[in-house]
Design brief:
alpha+beta; two-stranded antiparallel sheet
């Protein structure tokens, strides 16, 4: 078997450099207070430029005043909101795409709970950091225990 130690060492060095950069960026967030958006209807469009990687909460109108989210997630905000809304509009069923399915377990549960999309709201905070977003999502799910989340999936892509 032929090995190339130089390429492996380069891979390790690149990994260390990337992790150091990620660590430095995460440290900048330690004094940051995340700003949550005012909840908007799931049927509405997010304002251009307000997306990015972050954490989001989905509320039903009956629980929004008590700040009880039924689902908490993380990822690219506009993409995640779009997927949840599209799957919801498809009666909670996955949407066949070219190379995979666009699926949302949350939207499936939401549709079963209430089929009127106007009763669903979406709030988010943009953090611009994937690792911090994953950890924040995990802690929020553990703390708030949203009805539609699967605890074993928190912090996972």
């Amino acid at each position: 078997m032929i090995t190339n130690d130089k390429l492996f060492k380069k891979a390790v060095a690149n990994t260390i450099e990337n992790l150091a950069k990620d660590l430095a960026e995460a440290k900048l967030l330690i004094n940051h207070n995340p700003e949550w958006s005012t909840p908007i209807k799931l049927s509405e469009t997010i304002k251009p430029g307000s997306g990015g990687i972050g954490v989001y909460k989905i509320y039903h109108r009956d629980w929004i005043a008590e700040d009880v989210a039924l689902y908490i997630g993380q990822g690219v905000i506009s993409g995640r909101k779009g997927t949840h809304a599209s799957v919801f509009r498809n009666k909670g069923k996955a949407i066949p795409c070219k190379n995979s399915n666009s699926h949302s377990e949350a939207a499936e549960k939401m549709y079963e709970y209430d089929t009127d999309i106007e009763n669903w709201f979406f709030s988010f905070c943009v953090l611009h950091d994937k690792a911090v977003s994953q950890e924040y999502e995990k802690i929020l799910i553990e703390t708030e225990e949203p009805e539609f989340n699967n605890l074993s999936m928190s912090g996972v892509n």
